[in-house]
Each structure stands twice: as C-alpha cells, then as structure tokens.
Design brief:
The complex is a heterotrimer of chains A (about 450), B (about 270) and C (about 450).
Chain A: E1 2-3, H1 4-22, H2 26-54, E2 58-61, E3 64-67, H3 73-90, H4 99-117, H5 121-144, H6 151-174, H7 177-191, H8 199-207, H9 210-217, H10 221-228, H11 237-258, H12 263-282, H13 287-318, H14 334-346, H15 354-369, H16 374-396, H17 410-428, H18 437-442
Parallel strand pairs in A: 1-3
Antiparallel strand pairs in A: 2-3
Helix pairs in contact in A: 1-2, 1-4, 2-3, 2-4, 3-4, 3-9, 3-13, 3-17, 4-5, 4-9, 5-6, 6-7, 6-8, 7-10, 7-11, 8-12, 9-13, 11-12, 11-16, 12-13, 12-16, 13-14, 13-15, 13-17, 14-16, 14-17, 15-17
Chain B: H1 14-36, H2 48-60, E1 76-80, E2 94-98, H3 108-133, E3 146-149, E4 153-156, H4 168-171, E5 180-183, H5 187-196, H6 198-205, E6 210-214, E7 221-225, E8 228-231, E9 241-242, H7 245-249, E10 261-262, H8 264-270
Parallel strand pairs in B: 1-2, 1-5, 5-6, 9-10
Antiparallel strand pairs in B: 3-4, 6-7, 7-8
Chain C: H1 2-28, H2 35-63, E1 67-78, E2 81-90, H3 93-114, H4 121-139, H5 144-162, H6 169-200, E3 205-206, E4 214-215, H7 221-238, H8 247-250, H9 256-265, H10 270-277, H11 279-284, H12 286-308, H13 313-333, H14 338-357, H15 361-372, H16 383-386, H17 392-400, H18 405-435, H19 438-442
Antiparallel strand pairs in C: 1-2, 3-4
The chains are: A mainly alpha (about 450), B alpha/beta (about 270), C mainly alpha (about 450).
Chain lengths: ~450, ~270, ~450
C-alpha cells in the first residue's frame, strides 16, 4: 500500500531540494525552500479536503494499492512533517545554513514523508538509511568547510542503528520474532536517543546547524517505526525493558537539562527527555495512554522544532547563547520571546496548548500499567517546565543591556504563527485533533490492514 | 488654602479679608490649571475650578505615583525686585527671592541672601538634574518596585541597595539644565561677594550653577564665565508677547520656549 | 431561570477569557493598544464577570438553591477517559469568584494610574487578565481536572509578574524560584488527579452532605490518604507554607498592585481553597487533617516570629500573609468549613489594602505620630514573652535567618544539582569517547 499524498509531498520536497542545492545565495535558497514547503502544505491541505469530501480514492496498479486519503494519524502526520519543515527552513539563519544544508533539510523531510507513504517494512528501512546517508554526507561536507567534525561520531551510532534496523526487519520477515524485535528495539532506541544511546543527539544539537537537527529529529521516525512495525509485538519482556529505559531517559533528561549552561544543550536534553516519555507511553496497552503518546508525538514534533529553531534564530542575532549570563531584553523582541515561551511550554504540557491534552492522556493512561513509573513522568515534566522557564528568563531578561537585536522577520513570524496557532487551537478545542477512538490505534498498522476497522 | 486665627480679625477688616480670600481662591484655581497642563491624564479643556479639584484629588490618590510636579522643570532663580519680573511667563520654573538693591549699597544683605539661597537652589536643581540624567545610579529608578525599609529609606523589591535620589516619576518632565541665578545687583558688588564667600565660590567657580547679574542702574547683563563676570550680549532685546498665559500653555505638554511678557491688560486684571 | 443562571456562571469565566484572547491575539498580529483601551478592555471584562457573579448569587438565592452546576460537556474523550468541563457555583466558589473578579477589576483600575507611562503597561494587563481568567476557571471548576488547568495558568502568570522588572537580575531569579516551587508542587496536584481517576473513576466534585460539593473519596483509606497528602503538598507550594515558603517574601519584586492581588489576596489563598474543596477527603483521612493542622500551625508560628524581625514592609506583609494562611489551614484541618472561608475573604481584603498602602508607609507613620503626639511606642512583646529570656536571642537569630528553611532548601537544590552535574560530566566523558571527539570532553560545562 502506498499513500499518495505524503508521496507527492515527498516528491515535491525532493525536487525543491534539488533546485535549492543548485542555488548560490543562501538567502534566496532559504526563501525558495520556504515557498516550496508552504506551497506543498497548502496543496496537501486542499487535496485532503477534496478527498474527504469525495470520500477517498483507491487505485490499483502494479500489484500495489495506492490510497489517496488516510485516516487518523496517517492523515495528520504529513502535515506535522511539513510544518516541521516550514519551521526548519523558515527560521534557518543564513549564517549557518548554506544552500546545500537547506537542500539536505528538504531531502530529510522528504524521506520522512516517504516513510509515511509506504507500508512495506523493507522500504521503510531503506528510507531510514537514506535519511542517515543524507545527514552524514551533509555533516561531512560541513566539516570540510570549517565546522567541527561530526560525521564520524554520528555514523557510529546511526550506522549501528541502520544495521540493527535492517537486520531486525529481515528477521521479522523470516519469522524470528524475538531476535527481530530485539534488533528493532535497539535501532529505535538509537534513533530516539534513549539513554545511553543519546550521545549523538547532544553532540549534534550542540554543534550542527539546528535546521538539519530539527529535520532529522523532530518527525521522530523512530517513534513511527515503533508504532507501525512493532505495534503487535508490544507487551513482551523486551518491550517492557524498552519502556523502562525510555522512562529513565525522561527522568535523566529532565535532571540533566536543569544544570546545562548552553541553551542548545538544554534544549537537546528537553527533547530527549520528552521523547523518552512519549516512547514510554507508546508501550502502553491502554487506549488512553497510547492516544496520549501519539498526540504527544505530534505535539513534540511541532513544539520541539519550534523551540530549537527559535534558539537558532536568537543565536543568529546574538552569537553563542550561554545560560550563565543573563542577556537580552524581551521588551525589545517581544514576538521572539513569546514564541520561545509558548513553543517551549507546549512541549511541557502548559494548559492552553495541545501539550496539556497529550500529557493528560499519557499520564492517565500509564497509571494502570506502570504504577511505579507514572510519578516519574510527572516529575520529569515538572523539571522540564523549569528548564524552559529558566532558558526563557536567562536568554530574554535579567539585564538592561540590549545589543539591538531585531525581532522576528515576517517570514519567521508566519512560520511560527502557523505552528503556534495549531498548538493553541488544539489546546482550546482538542477534538479537532483527536481522531475518533476507532482510528487511533489501528490506522498505523503496517502489517494488518484488517485491524483498521476494530480498535 | 487654610486660614488660621480668623476669629482674631477685627470686624472692620472682615470685608477686606473676604476679598483677599476670594483672590487667593482664584489664584489657587488658576495655578492648578497651569499645573494641569503637564499632566497627561488631565483633560485639555478644563476650567480652573475643575483643575483645582483634579490637582487636590491627585495629592490624596493612593494610586497616583505623580501626585504633584514638585520642583520638576526648575531652571532659574531670580534674586531681585519683583517689578523686574512682573508680567513674565515663568512657567513655574523659577525660584523667586525678593531683594532690593537700592537699600543695600554694600551688598551685606545680598551676601546673606546668597549664602542661604544659592546652596539650596543649587542642590535642588542638581538633585533633579542627576536623577534625570542617570536614574539608576543617581536617581531612585521607578517608584513601582520600591519597598520602604527600616522606616528610613527605600530599596527595590526584596533586597537591594538603598535607593537615593529622586524617583523617575518625579523627574520625568524635568529638563536637565543647571540652575541660572539671575541677580539684581551691580557686577562689582557681586564680584566682591563671590570672592569673599568660599562656599559660594565653590558652586559658582566649579560650574555647578550659572550666575548672571543684571545691573539695576544700566540694565546691562553680566554672565559669569571663564572665572569672572563678563558682559553678555543678548541675541535679541525684544520679547514675544502673548495676551494671557492660558493662551500660551493651552494644550501644550512640553517645555515652553522663552518666557514672554504677558500683555499689560491681562496682567492688570490678575493684579 | 436555569438558562439565565447558567449564562451568568459561564459569563464569569468567559468574560476574562475573551479579554485575554482579544489582547493576546491582536497584539501578536501587531495591533498597538493605547493605555486607555487596554485598561478599558480589562476593566470591562472584569466588571462583567463581577456583575455576572452577583447576578448568579442573587439568582441562586431567589431560586432557593444552594448551587448551580453548568455542564459544558466533554472537552475530549478517549476510550473510558473523558475530560469533563463543568462549572460549579456554590457557597464556596461563588463568594470566591465574585471577590476575585471584583478585586482584579479594582487592581485594573488602580494600575491604570499607577502604571501610567510604564513600559510594561500592556504586559501587566495581559498577565493580569490571564491570571483573572485562570482564577475563575480554577474557582468555578466542577472537577479537579479543570482546577488543575487554572492552577497552572495562575502559577505561570505569577512567575512572569514577579519578573516584571526584568531588567534587573534579582526579580528574574525570584520569579524563577517561585516557578520552580509551583512546578514541583503542581506535580503533586497532577499526581493526585491521576490517582483519583485511577481509583475513583472521575474527579468531579459531588454533593456528599458536606457544606458544598467536594471530591469523592477512594474506596480504600490508603488511597484517600495518599490523595490527601498530595493535595496538601500542592497547597503547600501555592500558599507558601513551611518549609516551602521562601519564595513568598522574594515574590514582592513585582509592582505593588500585582503583589497585592497575588500575595495579599487571591493566589495565596488558592491552597486553602483546594483543601476546602477536598473537605471530604480530609474528613475521611484523619492523618491528612492532622498533617494540615501541623503544617498550618508551624507556618503560623514561623511567619509570626520571622515577620517580627523583618526590616522592610513588603517582607513583613508577606510573612503576615503567610501566618494568616497558616491559621486558615489550621482551621481547615480542625474540620471547620465556613470559618476558614470567611477568614479567607476577610484576610484577603485587609491584606490587599495593606500592600497597596505600603508605599505610603512613611506618610502614614508620620500622620500617626502627629496624631498621637509623640513617637510611636514599641509594640509590647506578646508572643516573645512566652519564650524564656535565655532563648530569646536565639529565637531572634533563628528568625533573622528565616528559620533556616532557605538554607535547607538551598542545600537540597544544590545536592540535586550536584548529582545532576556529576551525571552530566560522566555523560560528556562517555559521549566524547563514543563519538570520538576529544574536544567534547574538554568543553567546559
């Protein structure tokens, strides 16, 4: 089965990436990429409405089923990925993002959309590896132009993840369930930066261009694979171990985020911690917890990319951001400050944002199955909220010296407003974003389409 | 205006007292009206009685951080005969000290006067000056976070250095200029006094205030600069004229330009 | 009549919410609000809310009822879990809601002159209206879920208003400290909420024969006690009880009207409000009630002694506030219901007035001295005389150090921070080795 909408979005972004790579001027490249992403998102929206109206369409060709519409999470995930791309490209500072980097961003997101478009696990594995190849090549190119050498370290972790993934998928196909699940869990743990396999992410967040990091991390491909491939294998011993590791990641991430001295690293730990909580939630058998984790996944994609990109925008204006010296005045750059605060708090479950709904569901759902751990989830979120506030206060206030940095530009405001709007509307009217119960669990199933109808 | 010991007034003088009271009442109202021009929240077209009520209300309003103008906008001190400044629109910026040079040939009274007036005027002016120029270091910053401590001073918020100087709300409308002391005396007398009193000399020689002398006999102006009183050439000897002060300041929030002689008819009416 | 009452109750919440939405959204889109418009919008919203509250009150009395519940339906639902929105106006929430709306409106009117020409004028009003909306949601909540919703919003606005003068480092630090306390204690509230759902099924307030609708108790005593303790933990943070009260005197960094409304009147009484709403839980689990009494009494004694040695007026008022809230907690723990409510309302009124008057302290002092005719005599030492003479210098020293609670909390925080730093260093070293970057290890944390 191939889903046509994410497929076309992926193709559009790939073509856009090719064009962008050929451009010389970083500013033009960025603006063009922004236009491409915006246009694709609009087109996707229009077609989604059209197909919803006419009730979907199915094509059969070459032994493949092509679907023109999807339900539940499959419908919203391409939009989430496109919004991530919008932020990654819209707020990317030209200082650190050359045209080739922007092209790489588009390619990575295109591959993420491709992963959403296909059902076949091997194709999934192939696209995952393709993402790694793109990122590694880009990191290598950057190190040649003076950036710190990140490719080798990245490859160490993600190469292993790719091997485990392919091996696991192969094993599952051959029927060796235990080994397959183990290999897949290792691969997912590496991809989702579960402690202790998180080193690549903290390094990447600290040194690589943030747009690239966001494009790779925010769509949470690992989470997606966990859902689609491992969904029917949950409940086993390994899955419980994984859930425990994810919860521990959440707690450790929260703890470490509190003592960071660089804004980038603090944000990185925030992402690691909250992702761990979501990965933990996905092991939930209860529908409530699972839905919470799914919603949390999407909220996290939007808010973490927004948060990281706002940091990138601030960094471009101010230089390296340290959390030891207060800097800046938010009265002069109010929009940037409000965006930072809102997006940061959306990931830590502030009321009025969609994150509150996700967290509520997640915590309510996990109390039954994991009576020892749900308290850790609550505490981690509390500490993460403190980290966000601390970053906000240190970066935007505390001194009356203001270096004259400019507030967000129109393009940046547009990108940020769309994402904030989605999170705010979701925070006020969650029903808009919560699929009806029947579709929540079943629609992401890769292997058993028959399961879609029951819940 | 509060009147004390009214019962001690003889019957025959009562009508005169009533007239004086009425006069003061009118003056208070007009003064309040003139003061109101500086308040952003006061209505532009009020009558003097409403202005007086407004000003008195501000003085007791708990929520009002700018209850009065205080000495803000002070710019000069005129030490001399009142006839010299009669009719001038001083815009509440002058300290007026009465002094008659015709009965003080050797300057003894002037010496005592200057010793009293100059330090006080200078200190007030410098207080406003520095609090305006650097509200954080020399002034007390905004009044809003002030926390009275020990019943002797204020600090910002929970704990901070004691804030000395004037709060921003007091100096907001001030113009940071040094006080100009205009003295109705002969320059040779003034020169003698400046040399004789070291305290005065410190203020004047070190440039903390400016001094000018207007000779009672020749009406020449002498300005203290470069260590001595030198003749001063005014740019123009013609002052613009306006029919009334209300006409001048109506609707204006900012500093008004050079004082203008108010037309004689309006002046007599006020007098 | 029903419809009218429901409409009034909904208006109490929706008027401030509308003001927040209008101010927030329009300012994000670039609309510049003048002082007059800002103050007018907020004032209108809260006047409407206050009138609606009064109208509800009259309506309820006229109808002969004791409460009005407006069920707004399910906000979202997944499987068996449903987040219900319902507004409950009864003997506990309606006085609170009326009072809160009137006070916020009053502070809005006060601040119009007080914050005139201040750079943060719009920000103050936005945060004030967000606070007011959060309080109304919390106070009129028909279940603990919604109460949590409002509770978090109140905490956030509180921290942002403490850091109002953001150009100095101290207000920001103190705002952050208050936020950390709120956040850690809100975890307790969320935990209580979750456990309640788990054991009881929903967290709605129901009539159980008490003075007003309260939380249901769990079937087992252990669970009820756990929920009670978690709720107490949440109240301790919000109402600055011992030993978590260090943030309160430091919270006086904001402008005087915000200090008045938060720490004099509304925000600090939300802890006792929560406990009053959970009265049934307190009745069912006597250990929890005992704990409430102990905490309240300890706070009252602490606040009383420490307040006496404070040298500045705002710290003194903060500690006085803390003392009274401690006493209110004692009353709640002892099983009284209406007495604490009246105590809260009376205390809130007087304290906000005191805080609003505190900048005029010197004037008031002089007036008093002139009226008395001589220097004000030192207050006779009542409580101090209870302590033996030898102990008094030590008590004084203890009070000067604010009971060493700040030291204790600081040590705990530093301990956790040290643990986290050690973990961080280990992490960096291991990561550097794994990733193969020696520079990573050397980079200064």
């Amino acid at each position: 089965m191939i889903y046509l909408q994410p497929l076309f979005a992926a193709l559009a972004l790939l073509l856009g990436g090719l064009r962008v790579a050929a451009l010389d001027d970083a500013r033009r490249a960025r603006n063009f990429a922004f236009g491409v992403v915006a246009a694709t998102a609009l087109a996707l929206g229009v077609t989604a409405l059209v197909f919803r109206w006419i009730g979907g369409a199915e094509l059969h060709a070459y032994g493949l089923t092509l679907l023109c519409s999807a339900e539940g999470w499959r419908e919203s995930s391409p939009f989430v990925d496109l919004l991530v791309a919008l932020l990654a490209v819209g707020l990317a500072p030209v200082v650190s993002h050359a045209p080739r980097t922007i092209a790489a961003i588009l390619q990575v997101i295109a591959l993420a959309l491709g992963i959403l478009a296909v059902d076949d696990p091997l194709a999934l594995g192939g696209l995952w590896c393709a993402q790694l190849v793109v990122v590694t090549l880009e990191l290598r190119r950057l190190s040649r132009t003076g950036a710190p050498p990140l490719a080798a370290g990245f490859l160490r972790y993600q190469g292993l993840a790719a091997l485990c993934l392919l091996g696991g998928l192969y094993a599952l196909q051959r029927g060796w369930t235990e080994e397959g699940v183990l290999a897949l869990l290792v691969a997912i743990a590496l991809r989702e930066a579960v402690v202790p396999a998180h080193g690549w992410l903290t390094t990447l967040v600290e040194h690589a261009p943030l747009g690239l990091v966001v494009a790779l991390v925010a769509p949470q491909t690992g989470v997606y694979v966990q859902l689609s491939v491992l969904h029917e294998h949950t409940g086993g011993e390994l899955a419980h171990v994984f859930a425990a590791a994810a919860a521990v990641t959440g707690v450790i991430g929260a703890l470490l985020g509190v003592v960071q001295t660089s804004a980038r690293r603090a944000a990185g730990w925030l992402v690691i911690s909250q992702t761990g909580l979501i990965a933990f939630g996905l092991e939930n058998h209860s529908e409530v917890g699972f839905t919470g984790a799914m919603l949390g996944w999407q909220v996290m994609a939007l808010s973490s990319s927004g948060f990281l990109m706002t940091i990138a925008a601030l960094e471009a204006r101010r230089g390296a951001l340290s959390l030891q010296q207060p800097g800046g005045s938010f009265a002069r750059t109010p929009r940037m400050a409000v965006a930072f605060l809102f997006l940061g708090f959306a990931s830590v479950a502030l009321p009025l944002t969609l994150g509150f709904v996700a967290e509520d569901l997640l915590v309510q759902g996990s109390v039954e199955e994991f009576p020892q751990v749900w308290l850790a989830v609550i505490l981690s979120t509390a500490l993460n909220g403190y980290t966000v506030m601390r970053c906000f206060f240190v970066l935007f206030s505390g001194t009356r010296r203001h270096i004259g940095e400019q507030d967000l530009s129109r393009r940046e405001i547009a990108a940020v407003s769309v994402v904030m709007g989605v999170l705010l509307i979701g925070g006020l009217f969650p029903r808009v974003f919560l699929p009806s119960g029947a579709h929540a669990a079943g629609s992401v199933d890769a292997h058993a389409p028959a399961k879609t109808s029951d819940s | 205006m509060e009147w004390f010991d009214e019962d001690l007034m003889p019957e025959a003088r009562q009508p005169a007292l009533e007239e004086v009271k009425h006069l003061f009442e009118t003056v208070c109202e007009r003064q309040a009206h003139e003061r109101c021009r500086r308040f952003e929240s006061a209505p532009r077209d009020g009558d003097p009685a409403a202005a007086k009520r407004l000003v008195m209300g501000r003085a007791v309003d708990l929520a009002q951080p700018r209850p009065e103008c205080g000495h803000a906008t002070n710019a000069y001190a005129v030490i001399g005969r009142r006839e010299r400044t009669r009719g001038l629109f001083l815009d509440r910026r002058a300290f007026l000290v009465s002094y008659d040079p015709t009965v003080d040939p050797d300057g003894a009274v002037l010496a005592r006067l200057l010793n009293a007036v100059v330090p006080v005027g200078a200190v007030i002016n410098l207080e406003y000056y520095f609090s305006y120029v650097d509200p954080i270091t020399y002034g007390a910053g905004s009044k809003l976070p002030h926390n009275i401590t020990g019943l002797i001073g204020v600090m910002d918020g929970h704990a901070s250095d004691l804030r000395t100087g004037l709060p921003w709300q007091m100096v907001e409308i001030h113009e940071p200029v040094r006080l100009l002391a205009i003295i109705d005396a002969e320059p040779h007398i003034l020169r003698k006094l400046l040399v004789a009193a070291p305290a005065l000399a410190q203020f004047i020689a070190n440039g903390w205030i400016q001094v000018a002398a207007v000779s009672p006999s020749t009406n020449e102006v002498w300005h203290f600069s470069g260590g001595d009183l030198r003749p001063y050439e005014p740019e123009s000897t013609v002052l613009p004229v306006a029919p009334s002060s209300v006409f001048l300041y109506h609707g204006e929030l900012d500093h008004l330009g050079c004082p203008r002689i108010v037309a004689a008819s309006a002046d007599e009416e006020a007098a | 009549m029903d419809l009218w009452l429901s409409f009034c109750v909904v208006t109490i919440v929706s008027a401030p919410a509308l003001a927040v939405l209008v101010l927030g959204l329009l300012s994000w889109l670039g609309v510049r609000f003048t002082e007059r418009w800002t103050a007018s919008i907020v004032g209108a919203a809260f006047s409407t809310a206050a009138f609606a509250a009064l109208a509800s009150f009259i309506g309820i009395l006229a109808d002969g009822r004791s409460s009005v519940e407006v069920k707004l339906g399910s906000w979202f639902q997944v499987g068996h879990y449903s987040f219900e929105w319902s507004l409950l106006a009864d003997r506990l929430s309606l006085p609170f809601a009326t009072f809160a709306a009137m006070l916020v409106g009053l502070i809005g009117a006060f601040s119009r002159r007080y914050l005139h020409r201040e750079l943060g004028f719009f920000r103050f009003y936005l945060l004030l209206s967000l606070f007011g909306a959060g309080v109304q949601v919390l106070v009129l909540a028909g279940g603990l879920d919604q109460a949590f919703f409002g509770w978090e919003l109140v905490g956030l606005t509180s921290a942002l208003l403490i850091a109002f003068f953001h150009e100095r480092p101290k207000p920001v630090e103190h705002g952050l400290r208050a936020f950390l306390t709120y956040r850690l204690c809100d975890a307790g509230l969320l935990a209580a909420l979750v456990w309640l759902h788990h054991k009881v099924g929903n967290s709605q307030f129901v009539e159980q024969g008490a003075a007003w609708a309260t939380l249901r108790t769990a079937p087992e005593l252990f669970d009820t006690a756990l929920i009670g303790f978690l709720l107490l933990w949440a109240s301790m943070g919000k109402s600055a009880q011992v030993p978590l009260g260090g943030w309160l005197p430091r919270a006086m960094e904001g402008p005087t009207p915000s200090s008045a409304i938060f720490y004099g009147s509304i925000s600090i009484h939300l802890g006792p409000y929560l406990l009053l709403r959970s009265a049934h839980v307190l009745d069912a689990a006597p250990w929890v009630a005992a704990a409430v009494v102990v905490v309240g009494a300890a706070t009252a004694v602490h606040g009383s002694f420490v307040g006496r040695v404070q040298t500045d007026i705002k710290s003194l008022l903060a500690h006085a506030s803390m003392t009274q809230v401690g006493l209110i907690l004692v009353e709640i723990g002892l099983g009284l219901r209406y007495v604490p409510l009246i105590h809260i309302l009376g205390h809130a009124t007087i304290r906000s007035l005191e805080i609003l008057r505190s900048p005029s302290l010197l004037h008031d002092h002089h007036h008093l001295e002139r009226a008395v005719g001589r220097q004000i005599p030192r207050t006779p030492f009542h409580l101090e005389r209870l302590a033996p003479a030898a102990l008094r210098p030590w008590l004084y020293r203890f009070a000067l150090e604010r009971g060493y609670h700040d030291v204790l909390l600081r040590k705990v925080a530093l301990g956790v921070g040290a643990l986290a730093s050690v973990l961080d260093r280990v992490d960096r070293t291991v990561t550097a080795w794994l990733v193969g970057r020696s520079a990573e290890k050397r980079s200064r944390p």
